[in-house]
């Protein structure tokens, strides 16, 4: 992909290439065109993106598993990616071919010991949602409890591995010789592999329930008796998705209320310095009638290493202070810019871009309150996404892949909500956590 | 297939099942006497149902298809299944049933079914079930219905047996590789059977044929040729 970005956007974007050489060659053509000095018109660029997005989407919808996961993580960044991409990508969430009824039955039989009609009072053979590497069915236990059952596609671990290996080999054609892709791919692969362990996810469900469920947040419970490493049963969380919620034309008060809950949920996780819900995708949050926020899907849960967390959190004060030397050093620590670049001019251009982008990113933390409905904020972020300088190698710490996914995902939902958020407590939290970390002796 | 529920089938199945167990216990041998004893009939009576030992063991497989037909009734909305779903359901369910007597199947599937000189009852039943699935399906394209004949069913049956054989040697955890393969094969088959490309092509051909005079005149050169012919 020709777009670059200080954080992981680029790396994740690169995964596009997995969908086949077709797209790869299109980009190669574009590179070529650019490098021989032909300027492409805006219309050409636009057409190019739509065409590719369509192709990519077509490929994605045929694949399952890994591809869907990637499609989802990309479609989530609506407004961050060029619009043409995000439009097409967001279709992917809703139109992925399902695990067919016969296969769903057999997986349940294999994993839970009997066919769904024997195990449950009701079992809806039509999936209600596509999950990362499987799909979710609605059912009712014999005791009347309504549940959601997540079923994993067979042999998905091998599929992930072969998909990513293929993606990596394609990627190598698009990046400059010797660019180090292994770290990123390992990070993605190990995270996806972890997501295939539904027993672990069950434990995370319980863990997050203990931590967060209460008057403001609702999370499901794990139903262990009906779970296995490949089938996960949990209590059903009712509520409206973002789109449905917005369709009811909610008052500004309601928008702010839910915006604040989301913002706090995110920062409370930071405060506890433990596992983080790393899939801030609109499909994973419910805006409930009882004013509580429903949170689901604990498959992608992350605990970042201390060094990265500290550097990442430091971005905030450093960017707000605006001291260029400090920013430069921090960016170097985070592998965004290099000590000895091949092309210093281009590198400087890239740094300036990242600095400004980072500053925009820190804007919500500048004052005591931030209005995510401010159209100029949205425009700024969109503009950065469109004007990314072209780099032909991935940049940034591998942990950016998921940290930005969380952060950008959060911004994305909040901008759609047009919520005004009180950021005082979140600033305190970040400062306090940073202080704690600096005092602790580093290992 | 007319006698699924009859007592005969039940007794035959009981004998076959007992024989299958004995066959495994006895290291690939069993006595008709022991099997009869297990079921509670006399050895002579066994011959009312089966001509020989091999037929007894083979009936274990034949009965699987009978049992499957009974199971279909219990599946909710089975009628709404697509052809791919039906065929994969058949495949997965048979796998589950075969797992009940895994050792027996491992030892005998090759010799009793795959290497049988004539078409076994099991194979006939598989073909007849597939025929039922396909002939009842209203979503098949018109062109697909023209290939619904016993050659096609025999082809499907052979692929089906290959799939079982593949599974017997599949070392992946929980035979997931076979599950995946089954899913891909049945999806492809469904796509082929439901695809209307040929129907549309045929429609176009019909249309062109019906208006052939107009079309022939449109071909460059033909009109000139025709006008010359008229002049002469």
SSE layout and pairing:
The complex is a heterodimer of chains A (443) and B (232).
Chain A: H1 9-14, H2 21-35, H3 42-62, H4 66-75, H5 83-92, H6 101-112, H7 116-119, E1 122-123, E2 129-130, E3 134-140, E4 146-152, H8 156-174, H9 182-195, H10 198-212, E5 217-218, E6 231-235, H11 242-247, H12 252-272, E7 276-277, E8 285-287, E9 293-295, E10 301-302, H13 306-321, H14 324-333, H15 344-362, E11 369-371, H16 375-386, H17 400-417, E12 420-422, H18 424-439
Parallel strand pairs in A: 5-9
Antiparallel strand pairs in A: 1-3, 2-3, 3-4, 4-6, 7-10, 8-9, 11-12
Helix pairs in contact in A: 3-5, 4-5, 8-9, 12-17, 12-18, 13-14, 13-15, 13-18, 15-16
Chain B: H1 7-25, H2 32-39, H3 43-49, H4 53-72, H5 83-100, H6 102-114, H7 121-135, H8 142-145, H9 150-168, H10 176-194, H11 197-210, H12 212-218, H13 222-231
Notes on the protein architecture:
The complex is a heterodimer of chains A (443) and B (232). With 443 residues, chain A is an alpha+beta fold. Chain A is built from 18 helices and 12 strands. In chain A, a hairpin with a 5-residue loop joins strand 3 and strand 4. In chain A, helix 4 packs across helix 5, helix 13 crosses helix 15 and helix 13 crosses helix 18. Chain A is globular. The N terminus of chain A is likely disordered. Chain B has 232 residues and is mostly helical. Chain B has 13 helices and no strands. Chain B starts with 6 loop residues before the first helix and ends with a helix. Chains A and B meet through helix 6 of A and helix 5 and helix 10 of B.
């Amino acid at each position: 992909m020709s777009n670059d970005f200080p954080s992981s956007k680029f790396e994740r974007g690169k995964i596009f290439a997995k969908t086949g050489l077709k797209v790869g060659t299109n980009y190669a053509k574009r590179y070529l065109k650019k490098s021989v000095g032909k300027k492409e018109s805006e219309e050409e660029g636009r057409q190019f993106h739509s065409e590719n997005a369509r192709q990519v989407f077509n490929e994605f919808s045929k694949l399952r598993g890994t591809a869907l996961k990637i499609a989802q993580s990309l479609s989530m960044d609506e407004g961050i990616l060029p619009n043409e991409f995000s439009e097409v990508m967001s279709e992917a969430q809703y139109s992925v071919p399902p695990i067919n009824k016969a296969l769903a039955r057999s997986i349940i039989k294999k994993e839970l010991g009997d066919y769904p009609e024997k195990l449950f009072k009701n079992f809806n053979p039509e999936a209600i949602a596509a999950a990362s590497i499987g799909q979710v069915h609605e059912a009712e236990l014999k005791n009347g409890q309504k549940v959601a059952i997540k079923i994993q596609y067979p042999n998905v671990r091998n599929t992930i591995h072969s998909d990513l290996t293929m993606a990596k080999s394609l990627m190598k054609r698009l990046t400059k010789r010797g660019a180090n892709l292994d770290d990123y791919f390992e990070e993605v692969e190990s995270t996806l592999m972890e997501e295939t362990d539904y027993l672990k996810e069950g434990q995370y469900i319980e863990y997050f329930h203990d931590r967060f469920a209460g008057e403001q947040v609702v999370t499901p419970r794990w139903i262990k008796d009906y779970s296995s490493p490949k089938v996960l049963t949990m209590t059903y969380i009712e509520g409206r998705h973002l789109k449905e919620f917005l369709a009811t034309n909610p008052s500004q008060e309601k928008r702010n209320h839910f915006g604040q809950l989301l913002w706090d949920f995110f920062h409370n996780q930071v405060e506890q310095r433990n596992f983080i819900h790393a899939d801030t995708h609109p499909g994973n949050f419910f805006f409930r009638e009882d004013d509580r926020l429903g949170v689901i899907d604990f498959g992608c849960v992350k605990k970042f290493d201390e060094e990265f967390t500290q550097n990442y959190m430091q971005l905030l004060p450093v960017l707000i202070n605006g001291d260029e030397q400090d920013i430069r050093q921090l960016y170097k620590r985070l592998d965004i810019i290099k000590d000895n670049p091949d092309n210093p001019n281009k590198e400087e251009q890239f740094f300036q871009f990242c600095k400004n982008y980072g500053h925009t990113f820190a804007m919500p933390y500048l004052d005591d309150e931030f209005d995510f409905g401010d159209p100029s904020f949205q425009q700024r972020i969109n503009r950065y996404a469109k004007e990314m300088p072209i780099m032909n190698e991935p940049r940034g710490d591998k942990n950016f892949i998921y940290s930005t996914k969380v952060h950008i995902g959060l911004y994305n939902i909040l901008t759609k909500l047009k919520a005004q958020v009180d950021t005082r407590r979140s600033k305190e939290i970040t400062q306090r956590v940073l202080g704690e970390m600096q005092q602790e002796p580093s290992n | 297939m007319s006698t699924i529920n009859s007592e005969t089938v039940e007794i035959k199945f009981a004998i076959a099942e007992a024989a299958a167990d004995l066959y495994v216990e006895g290291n690939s041998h069993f006595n008709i006497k022991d099997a009869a004893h297990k079921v509670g009939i006399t050895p002579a009576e066994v011959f009312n149902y089966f001509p020989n030992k091999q037929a007894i063991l083979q009936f274990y497989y034949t009965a699987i298809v009978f049992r499957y037909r009974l199971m279909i009734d219990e599946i909710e909305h089975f009628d709404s299944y697509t052809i791919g779903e039906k065929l994969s359901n058949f495949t997965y369910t048979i796998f589950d049933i075969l797992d009940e007597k895994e050792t027996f199947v491992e030892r005998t599937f090759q010799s009793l079914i795959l290497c049988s000189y004539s078409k076994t009852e099991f194979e006939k039943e598989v073909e007849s079930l597939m025929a039922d699935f396909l002939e009842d399906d209203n979503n098949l394209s018109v062109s697909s219905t023209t290939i619904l004949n016993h050659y096609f069913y025999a082809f499907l049956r052979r692929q089906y047996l290959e799939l079982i054989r593949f599974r017997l040697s599949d070392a992946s955890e929980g035979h997931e590789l076979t599950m995946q393969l089954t899913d891909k094969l049945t999806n492809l088959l469904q796509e082929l059977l439901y695809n209307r490309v040929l129907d549309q092509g045929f429609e176009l051909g019909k249309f062109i044929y019906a208006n052939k005079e107009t079309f022939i005149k449109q071909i460059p050169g033909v009109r000139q040729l025709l006008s010359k012919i008229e002049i002469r």
